[in-house]
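S.,

As promised, the adenosine-5-diphosphoribose run. Input:
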Amino acid sequence: MTTQSPVDETTVLVVGAGPAGLVLGNLLLAAGVDCLIVERGSRAHVERRARAGFLAADTVRVLADHGLADGLKARGREHGVCVFRTGSGEFALRYADLGRRESHTVYPQQELVADLVDAFLRRGGDLRFGTTVSAMGGLDGDRPWLTAEGPDGTPYRLSGRYVAGCDGRHGISRRLLPAGTVRRHRRRHGVTWLALLAEAPPSLPAVTYAVHERGFAGHMARTPAVTRYYLQCAPEDRAESWSDAEIWAELDLRMRAERFGPLRRGPLLERALVDLESDVLDPMQHGRLFLAGDAAGLISPSAAKGANLAVMAARTLAEGFAAALHRGDEEPLARYSATCLPRIWRAQEFSHWMIGLLHAPAGDDEESRFLRSLRDARLETLRTSLPHQHSFADGYVGI
Ligand code: APR
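Predicted complex:
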């Protein structure tokens, strides 16, 4: 149990122990920068939270370069093919042989988070679980501070040189960027998914996107025993609106099991409704506060880019802090948002395009018919055009 002095002094205060905060903390320790991470959840909670699991090659490189990839190298699985199923059949896109010739590594996020927590603690890092940041201040000065409340609820103050807001979409940091300086860009995609985690081996060898007149369905392996499924549903649906049997029947229908074979069923461990939305905060910084990951912007799960963007922003931020603290060079930090935003917008554009590739309104009105035909034309172009497949491969894996 860390005994907190009335005001803890450190150099970089990191709020949040998700992919962004944990990668940042590990890279800072590796660069000899004093830091601490404050995390609201318990260690058990953050290491159990099943979320993403599709790591881009750039992400694996950042982790491997800093000795953080042992787990994913040992237990991760290469994926270089994705499959599209439509009414006219299915086609496989071998993206690892196209574009930058890179593949994904499938490695459940909770395992990556556990690896990152372990590495941070082994490096002597100060990671305070069960501790919530309730206030921040001094962001315009040179000694920003946080008010943190530990497991016993006693508030205490943390003071540092910089604050990294890695506290996700519901965190406190994104609310602290002054309204007059930050511009929020937001898109609600008008698509709702029922996100499912099934205790069943993968049914298919690859990520499979099924486009059906009843709606989208997706199959993504997570581990040899657990598979992620997505089922597009109506915005008014509730997670409990569907029985397990109805879910499996609808997945079979949309994945065209009668033609391609049944799905391997099992208990549904998790179900949650996801309204696909995206947003970007510009800039992602104010004074001594720098945001990374979901705190800086949300991206729809359509192309599984969220955790990858979080890691890349953490890498950029770690380099900026090291430059300022070791060399007195504040320029990289001053340019942090300008460095990250082009990468974020390219990922947003591809993810938005993926939504239009896989979804269209079901109505029989003129507009819905037009959008369905656009979707079908995109799929046909992807199926038949090699240049387009090269471009898809770059966007799908690239960060
Ligand atoms: N005080 C302390 N910790 C907080 C606070 C707070 N006030 N608010 C939030 N947190 C913690 C949360 O408990 C969570 O563990 O911040 C962490 C934020 O982690 P994530 O939500 O995983 O955000 P990030 O690291 O940006 O990664 C986001 O990873 O989950 C995938 O693809 C998903 O895009 C997403 C990406």
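Residues 15-21, 38-41, 46, 51-52, 109, 132-133, 166-168, 171-172, 293-295, 306-307, 310 surround adenosine-5-diphosphoribose (CB under 6 Å). The domain at 7-78+103-185+277-351 is CATH 3.50.50.60 (FAD/NAD(P)-binding domain).

- D.
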